[in-house]
């Protein structure tokens, strides 16, 4: 699950900034008044997280070019970012007001010229941003779906009318990818939205925008890097390469450095990641310092945790939590901090920390990770970390640092010792089997990985049943790599024999992504 948590962290750091700058810029303006170099200057400020400067420039643009709707769109986008990062209702209301003003201006243009592609584009993007913001802040699911439907239809019409309007491909591609990831319990939304997703097609559209778009190259590169992330045992050189380019092109951006550090951490380059994150922290002197620092400290805490350096992990998670708001997704940070205290022998502080996890989260918005770590925290309040827990954690952290052989050695040795195996519960045994199988899979020894995943699915745990459908997913991947399509699909289908288990939605998203990339 650590890959999932890292993915969430990177998205929470990067997406608000990029959404604040992505495809609002059409390939030609409605009145063609604002010079391209002024647009690019605003974009550079956004990429370098200088939003105060970007807003100042936008106001000057609006004053000089009052008839060009792009200036008003930029003004609304700045407040979109402020709202999504602060979760402040006043900022949300301000953005909605500005977005509605942009939509009205576009409709006035379309009343006179219904084929004005630029006006269609800005109107479509404004509806798209409204949809995204409502979903992110859990405001109104039906209104979000309605705005998303409108945005999608407009973007689709643009591509149909103007196949060379390449900037529209990015927004359309993101729609197709996002809908392709919709978990089973939200499938009813598709009937409201009115279209189906297609992950592969969406990625192809992002590539078109990155290669040919006039103003969406950088934004498309960011999202492609995220969607290029594969399963942990697979090669992630494409994702790392794309984020490295962003750092090279924007060396002053702490956000791009943070994204890159998270990517290489997934490639087991822990020390290099820590160095880059510390540089990003030093560069974080412009807008949104609190929001950017919050994400950096979380990644630093995770990096030191993987090194089994719990003292430095505590230091950074404490800083992360100090910057968190109560309605942030913070149970993962709280729980991990509690574990770090337990591992340093400070049981009293560990219990105090576990008790800080929140249970009044919104399931549709905060969902699985918050619920999962709330459960674990309750267990660890009454069940201190014992030798078995410490062994398993040490082996997993060693694996996450890239030493697969040592991780395997520790776990296989444990299977031979009464200290760990005498009277072991099915819940604890499945943890060892799953962890050992994962280490073998990372080492690309699929034969041994298959052996232990099969052992896992034949157990009957009480609390940790979620390991079984996740093991079937891993088995399906193994058979797919062996070229046994039929057996792969059989194991994937077994996932649906289980319901209401931990990380169900995320597993379905991983399954959709894997099947799309491997054409299954």
**Helix content range:** over 70%
Q: State the helix count.
A: 27
Order of helices and strands: HHHHHHHHHHHHHHHHHHHHHHHHHHH
What overall form do the CA principal axes indicate? globular
Most strands sheet: none
**Structural class designation:** mainly alpha
Number of strands: 0
Please state the CA-atom Rg, rounded to the nearest Å: 24 Å
Low-confidence stretches: 1-30
Q: Mean pLDDT, nearest integer?
A: 87
State which percent range the strand residues make up: under 5%
How widely separated are the two ends? 24 Å
Write the layout of secondary structure elements.
Layout: H1 2-19, H2 36-47, H3 51-64, H4 69-86, H5 89-112, H6 117-136, H7 141-161, H8 167-180, H9 188-193, H10 199-212, H11 217-227, H12 237-249, H13 254-266, H14 270-283, H15 289-306, H16 310-323, H17 331-343, H18 347-354, H19 367-382, H20 387-400, H21 404-414, H22 418-421, H23 426-442, H24 446-457, H25 467-481, H26 485-494, H27 504-517
Helix pairs in contact: 1-11, 1-13, 1-15, 2-3, 3-4, 4-5, 4-6, 5-6, 6-7, 7-8, 8-10, 10-11, 11-12, 12-13, 13-14, 13-15, 14-15, 15-16, 15-17, 16-17, 17-18, 17-19, 20-21, 20-23, 21-23, 23-24, 24-25, 25-26
